[in-house]
């Protein structure tokens, strides 16, 4: 009878043997908004243009044009989207409106869209397929919208949410892609509450992020988080309204439900 094989030890190195950063500071994927290879959340209450902001980030990163005409993209690259709540036609229309604002053509942008009916971050087969997709396309940014449609766990259970978020963190480390999750804020948020603690669910969500911001939320705080202070509320509203108007025109007068 053979003796049991002893467990292999974890790999260990001395601190001086750790990989050094090529730069003294973390580079930006989108200047002042999102750091390269960051995992994070685009959060906000309903009707605060979270999806529009996510798509604006996608267009900016894929094209190298300034996000919101303000924040530069030093190293553009391919972007992958999964929009769980939007039809393909709605998603295309929104992207067309954004590319129109940037004076670009949609067919020239390096944006790819996952068209599967379902994608669940808490299912191993879906995890494996998503990892294979990222490794195939060598992305700069992955956007998943919204988080609530990507799992069936209790968002208020710290253990469950921590386990769920462990996967995108591992995915980021394996692929080098930045990952942005669109997520809802609580309906009733204290005026003096911290930015990340307004996110719906466990506080582990905030502990997980490298970058986080919320359109028009007035949040301030952690890491690359930003409240878009370089754009006034009126300027931001005008920008998004112009996009909505363009969508309405493209619909040839038909009423369009601009769900955020």
Walk me through this protein's architecture.
With 260 residues, this protein is of the alpha/beta class. The protein has one domain (36-250): Rossmann fold (3-Layer(aba) Sandwich). The chain contains six helices and eight strands, in the order βββαβαβαβαβαβα. It has a six-stranded parallel sheet. Strands 1-2 form a two-stranded antiparallel ribbon. α2 links the parallel β4 (79-83) and β5 (111-113). Mean pLDDT is 80; it is low at 217-230 and 252-260.
Summarize the structure.
With 260 residues, the protein is of the alpha/beta class. The protein contains six helices and eight strands, in the order βββαβαβαβαβαβα. The chain is 32% helix and 13% strand.
What is the helix/strand order? EEEHEHEHEHEHEH
Query: CATH superfamily name?
Result: P-loop containing nucleotide triphosphate hydrolases
* Sheet with the most strands: spatial strand order: 5-4-6-7-3-8
* Overall CATH class: Alpha Beta
Looking at the overall shape, the CATH architecture is 3-Layer(aba) Sandwich
Count every helix, treating DSSP H or I runs of 4 or more residues as helices.
Answer: 6
Quaternary organisation of the protein chains: single chain
**Major beta sheet summary:** 6 strands, parallel
Examine the coordinates and then state which fold CATH places here, giving the name of the CATH topology: Rossmann fold
Tally of domains: 1
Global geometry: globular
| Poorly predicted tracts of residues | 217-230, 252-260
Number of strands: 8
């Amino acid at each position: 009878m053979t003796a049991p094989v002893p467990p292999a030890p974890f790999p260990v190195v001395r601190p001086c043997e750790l990989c050094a950063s090529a730069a003294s500071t973390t580079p930006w994927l989108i200047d002042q908004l999102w750091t390269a290879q960051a995992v994070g959340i685009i959060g906000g209450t309903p009707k605060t243009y979270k999806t529009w902001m996510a798509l604006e980030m996608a267009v900016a990163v894929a094209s190298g044009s300034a996000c919101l005409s303000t924040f530069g993209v030093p190293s553009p690259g391919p972007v992958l989207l999964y929009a769980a709540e939007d039809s393909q036609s709605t998603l295309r229309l929104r992207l067309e409106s954004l590319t129109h604002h940037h004076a670009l053509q949609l067919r020239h942008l390096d944006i790819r869209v996952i068209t599967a009916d379902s994608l669940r971050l808490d299912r191993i087969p879906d995890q494996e397929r998503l990892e294979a997709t990222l490794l195939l396309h060598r992305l700069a940014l992955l956007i998943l919208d919204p988080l609530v449609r990507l799992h069936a766990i209790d968002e208020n259970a710290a253990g469950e949410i921590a386990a769920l978020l462990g996967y995108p963190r591992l995915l980021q480390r394996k692929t080098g892609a930045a990952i942005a999750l669109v997520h809802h804020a609580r309906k009733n948020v204290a005026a003096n509450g911290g930015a990340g603690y307004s996110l719906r669910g466990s506080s582990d969500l905030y502990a997980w992020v490298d970058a986080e911001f919320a359109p028009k939320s007035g949040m301030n705080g952690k890491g690359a988080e930003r409240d878009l202070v370089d754009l006034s509320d009126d300027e931001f509203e005008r920008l998004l309204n112009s996009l909505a108007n363009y969508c309405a025109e493209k619909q040839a007068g038909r009423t369009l439900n601009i769900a955020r």
